[in-house]
Amino acid sequence: MSKIVVKGGQRLLGDIKVSGAKNSALKIMAAAILTDKPVILRNVPDIADVRIMINVLRELGVEVETVGGGDIHITSTKTLKSKAPYHLVNQMRASVIALGPLLARLGEAQFAMPGGCNIGSRKIDLHIRGLELMGAEINVRHGYIEAKADRLRGADIHLAFPSVGATENLMMAAVLAKGKTWIRNAAKEPEIVDLAKCLIEMGAKVSGAGTETISIDGVTELHGVDYTVMPDRIETGTYMVAGAITDGEIFLKGACSDHLKIVVSKLRQIGIEINCYPDGIEVKSNGKILSTNVSTLPYAGFPTDLQAPFMALLSLAKGTSVITENVFESRFVYVNELRSLGGKIDIESHHAIVHGSRSLVGAKVKAPDLRGGAALIIAGLASEGSTEISDVFHIDRGYDSIVEKLSFLGADIHRTKSETNLQFINFNQAPRANISTAQ
Ligand code: EPZ
């Protein structure tokens, strides 16, 4: 298994282009199941989770062609299969997002119950309850979800929690249902809006995406679409933090500051200069990092996916910060690894008390999950000496060309020789580093 080695002390300087959003692309790929017409997706990130979703779709009988440069062509004309392969659903819990579209298109679906992961139980009771309200008959047997519905019907659904996945699954199920559906207490994340925009361009009748009530008038069929995925706000936030922790001066081309208002405000609050432009975000740091308190919340609150990168940054702040994780029940698994780098962090229930240190020291650490792994890279960028990160397959799930991008910005970072266990599907024959000056 490959490792990532970072030698700390280099300021990040220059421009890079942010990639398409993982947490939008995966859902929009699943939305292609809703039509038998060709769907072209652009700006799809070259990451492991996309490769897994491509395999899930292919196993369901969907034709998927990766044509390079982040474009994917998807056609669901052939007879679709109703059973998602166990080993793929097990690899990526996000695959369950295909349940709603498959049920809407085919009237039946069998999916392995997605497992939990290191950040929490990751239940899907809200997905199931909503589909049952829409007339689906759902049984969970021997670890499989077996769903049937001759034709889903519109329903008035009130989510107990604004779950991103449940909102997306139910929105996609509703676009072909008979009648009108309301999703109340819906998630408001920008990825929900991106999915809704794509569905509307496919002929769906969706309104209210981005607010707490989404209404959908079911139609009988959808047509194809040529759609460009939104920029990845979590990748953007990760690089903003990397620029901040290295006293850097970077420009994130294509980043959308509207999606990151609270992150921009927090970084300014702790002394980082952030300038927002129509074509991207500039980050300038002078080495001074003040402490602050952060509480993760559903959008437009502080994103839980940036909790770990932010903790790496606050580990070097002047003073003590408190980070509270309100979205997932165990999203501090990576903290032990951060302590190995010198982070002084106490955990009390869902609070992390971060005592700012004067310095961090490189060490051998292990990525426990996607965002925790990113946090270890960020800490390594600012540590004295070298940091060797193993289990980097977690990081490769969601960051497109992270080693190439950081290296382009001046980081002393490389991936060890032992080949990654990823087969680079010929998106364009090699890991694509979205580097603006190269374009
Ligand atoms: C999406 O996960 C994202 N993943 C996550 O990003 C992100 O952290 C999360 O939304 C919150 O913003 C993708 O989009 C692929 P939820 P999702 O349903 O849909 C509970 C990353 O790092 N819940 O909003 O699974 C659940 O247990 C990943 O890119 C139920 O109880 O998030 C959790 O505590 C990590 N029952 C909370 O809601 C349900 O039926 C938030 O889950 C569904 C969820």
Q: What shape does the CA trace take?
A: globular
- Tell me the radius of gyration: 21 Å
Number of strands: 25
Task: Tell me the CATH superfamily of the largest domain.
Answer: Enolpyruvate transferase domain
CATH architecture of the largest domain: Alpha-beta prism
Helix-residue proportion: 25-40%
Overall tally of domains: 2
Q: What is the first-to-last residue Cα distance? A: 31 Å
User: Would you give the CATH topology of the largest domain?
Assistant: UDP-n-acetylglucosamine1-carboxyvinyl-transferase, Chain
Largest sheet: 4 strands, mixed
How many distinct helices?
Answer: 14
Q: Spans of 5+ residues with little confidence (pLDDT < 50)? A: 420-439
The distinct bound ligands, ions and cofactors come out as: ligand EPZ
Strand order of the largest sheet: 22-24-1-25
Strand content: 15-25%
Please write the CATH class name of the largest domain: Alpha Beta
Mean pLDDT: 93
The secondary-structure class comes to: alpha/beta
